[in-house]
Design brief:
- This protein has 327 residues and is α+β, with helices and mostly antiparallel strands.
- 39% of the residues lie in helices and 21% in strands.
- It folds into 2 domains: 77 residues, Four Helix Bundle (Hemerythrin (Met), subunit A) (Up-down Bundle), CATH 1.20.120; 230 residues, PPM-type phosphatase domain (Phosphatase 2c, domain 1, 4-Layer Sandwich).
- The strands form 3 sheets. It has a 6-stranded antiparallel beta sheet with strand order 1-2-13-10-7-8. Strands 3-4-5-6-9 form a 5-stranded antiparallel beta sheet, with helices on one face. A two-stranded antiparallel ribbon has the order 11-12.
- It is elongated, with a radius of gyration of 23 Å.
- The N and C termini lie far apart (54 Å).
């Protein structure tokens, strides 16, 4: 890590932690662990002074920047983990996968007036995509559908996704306007996360009568397929977590029997095969057939087109698809 401003920020964080630990050491009788951590901090500060901070002590290569931001005391890159460290990492990642899987909605969802299904595919072990379906209570005739994308990949992105999940599940039962809900989520996210972390997200509230309200925070525009053709409803606002005072708008439209709404992340539209990027026209060629398909069949068709386009190329980003069909 050779960015001077980033190292300066980490130095300040380490000094703050050292002062906090020294205060704790004065209050507790057993201070062995606190003193050990202070020594670790002093060692990291020394490496900053001599220019070796952020370099692996084993091979000399740079340590992964995202890992350093999460744990400024790291001395070894992933490639040089000991057998015990590798095992601990595998256990932690396995737990992260289980936590993330438990946060996903039930598949093949049948709700009054709607047929809903989704596809959730991490590019690595865990995903930074956010996919959710929230029903405020058993008496509610409305449901909230959310598809989002957190900056970055891996565990750090998945942790921010989990943070978003908790905030939405806390605030949705208050039945706020969609714009107000997004503004509150944005303020909390902005005040509680690092400056370089943010999320794009589309939030939809589906009513039993087919009315859809949508608010969009810098995310891919949804695709609405009706008898008349395909359109991209709504407009984009600022991604969540960038500006604490950002405001958001919502738009409403009516879906009728057979109409389809497709929400997705940029793992679809930014998929690459060489210099070619996946185009939505590959999906839209099926728009009339989609009205006669189930959400699961629509998802399978989209995935088949994506696979044909990639032609063996590896997917480089997380992919989420959420399909709502009006019954």
């Amino acid at each position: 890590m050779n960015n001077i401003s980033e190292i300066g920020d980490i130095r300040e964080r380490l000094l703050d932690r050292k002062n906090h630990l020294m205060n704790l050491a004065q209050k507790f009788i057993s201070t062995a662990e606190i003193l050990r951590l202070i020594e670790e901090i002093d060692s990291a500060l020394k490496r900053m002074t001599n220019g070796t901070y952020g370099l692996c002590e084993v091979c000399g290569d740079p340590i992964e920047p995202d890992r350093l931001k999460a744990d400024p005391l790291l001395k070894v890159c992933l490639d040089d983990f000991s057998a015990e460290q590798q095992k601990n990492l595998e256990n932690e990642l396995s737990l992260a996968v289980k936590v993330q899987q438990n946060l996903l909605p039930t598949e093949n969802i049948s709700l009054p007036g709607w047929d809903i299904d989704y596809h959730y595919e991490p590019a690595s072990i865990v995903s930074g995509d956010y996919c959710d379906l929230i029903i405020p209570d058993e008496r509610s005739e409305n449901q909230y559908v959310i598809v989002g994308d957190v900056t970055g990949k891996g565990v750090a992105a998945s942790m921010l996704m989990t943070h978003l999940h908790a905030m939405f599940h806390t605030l949705v039962p208050f039945n706020l306007k969609l714009s107000e809900l997004m503004e509150r989520i944005n303020r909390v996210l902005c005040e509680s996360t690092a400056d370089d972390l943010f999320a794009t997200l589309v939030l939809a509230r589906a009513h039993k009568d087919g009315t859809i309200e949508i608010s969009n925070a810098g995310h891919c525009l949804p695709i609405l397929i009706t008898e008349s053709g395909a359109i991209e409803p709504g407009s984009n606002g600022v991604p969540l977590g960038i500006l604490c005072q950002a405001t958001y708008e919502s738009t409403s439209f009516k879906m009728h029997r057979g109409d389809v709404l497709i929400l997705y992340t940029d793992g679809l539209t930014e998929a690459m095969n060489g210099d070619d990027c996946f185009e939505l026209s590959r999906i839209l060629q099926y728009q009339h057939e989609f009205r006669d398909m189930s959400p699961r069949e629509i998802i399978e068709t989209i995935n088949a087109e994506l696979s044909a386009f990639l032609d063996g190329s590896v997917k480089s980003d997380d992919l989420t698809l959420m399909v709502l069909k009006k019954l």
